Amino acid sequence: MLVCVSDDDRDFEVKRVIYQIVKAVSPGDTRVNQNSSLDQLLSLLKQILHEARFLLVLDDIWNEDPMKWDALRGHLESACSSDMNSKGSKIIVTTPRNTVASIVGTKPPILLRGLPYKECWELFVKCAFQEQKEAEQYPRLREIGKAILEKCTGVPLAITTLGCLLRSKQCGEHEWKKIRDSEIWKLDAKDDGILPSLRLSYNHLPQRLKQCFSLCSLYPKDYIYQANQMIMLWMAHGLLQPTNEEEEPEQIGESYINILLSASLLQHEDIPLDVIPMVSATRLYLLTMHDLIHDLAKSTMKESNKTRTIISSKIQEGSGVEWTSHEFKRLKVWDVENTELELLLDDCFVNVKYLRCLRLPEDNMLEKLPSSICKLQILQSLDLSGCKNLLELPKSMRNLVSLGYLFLTFSGTSLSFMDTGNFQQLQWLFIVGCKNLVSLPSALGRLSVLKKLIIFECEELVNFEDEEDEAE
């Protein structure tokens, strides 16, 4: 089992790591969540690991506090009920810091070296030329490529990203030389940990795409992005502006994602078995970003975008008070990433009138939404797909006249009170996991610009309501 820990000393929380281990061992287990106490997590972990033989990989640890590591190791040993070594169980830790290795290690550390030249060249050819025969057709490019390859020092990520960049400039010898002779190679990666080869890939992105790429760093490392989530973020920042009447913002967003994928600045994430049906139905694929590339994106982030977007993992119950602050009046995006949300105060959205994108967390405990959400008249995207406990929606939601993208999960039986016919800008409507939903409002037929309607896992849904029923 693999658990990605953190790149920040301050984020190394023993309880959170234990929770990640439990989810890695038993991903479908619903007995605990992020609200569970440490004792509850340890009790379940003990049930799972009791007399079990396992290999646990704790990836990317930066924490240099020996007390935190000793606490974590003590909990793991206690959960196993016996000496781990006697059963053949092992824990492997990966870290970029020698000091961390000395703190956590019981064996001498294994230092990872660069790939041998032969493997480096094979990988480079695959990315830059696709195959060896094609490389032989361009002997001058091949020689320039070998010079560039030497600068990558055997790092697979550097080879992959640069190879993909060079493939787009395959017939341009001048462009290859510019990359080979770039001044960026003279920068020392030790200054900020960012490889010069990655900076080169970033520098060759179109300006608007550079901004989109930078915004990805607002999410934590090892985060699994949904493609639509990324597109909504970029759209809220006005980065997906069509240049002609035939272009649509979401199509531009999809093309940007494909460019980042082809440049190896993003990667496709394997889809968990339990969500394959939903992903297939909604055609919303998952993405991830390498830690070093995340560092690059973070280094290019503008301060202005940081203050206009909040990606929060620690919003607590009743935290609406802080959102009434004028400090957030220019906020464009609020994306809450934790499950510790049971209540939002009625006035929590009063002063965030410029909010364009709102996403509430997965598996939250909210039973109702604050009425002030209906004042967000320029809100473009609203994601309530994690609100499975939601019993009702505000009747004044009809005031969200700019809403273009709605992702909805709730426990009610009808949507008629929302007056969906008022959502004349609505282009995407996803109704997912509404277990008690019996009927849909016929007003959906009046949504003239609706392009995508997805209804999934709504087993009780049987018909459309007629206009008279809705009026009542």
From TrEMBL:
Transmembrane segments: none annotated. InterPro entries: Apaf_helical, LRR_dom_sf, LRR_R13L4/SHOC2-like, NB-ARC, P-loop_NTPase, WH-like_DNA-bd_sf, WHD_DRP. Residues 10-133 form the NB-ARC domain. The keyword Nucleotide-binding does not apply. Keywords: Plant defense, Repeat. Residues 325-456 form the Disease resistance R13L4/SHOC-2-like LRR domain. Residues 218-297 form the Disease resistance protein winged helix domain. Pfam families: LRR_14, NB-ARC, WHD_DRP. PANTHER family: NB-ARC DOMAIN DISEASE RESISTANCE PROTEIN, PLANT BROAD-SPECTRUM MILDEW RESISTANCE PROTEIN RPW8. This is NB-ARC domain-containing protein. It comes from Stylosanthes scabra. The lineage of its organism: Eukaryota, Viridiplantae, Streptophyta, Embryophyta, Tracheophyta.
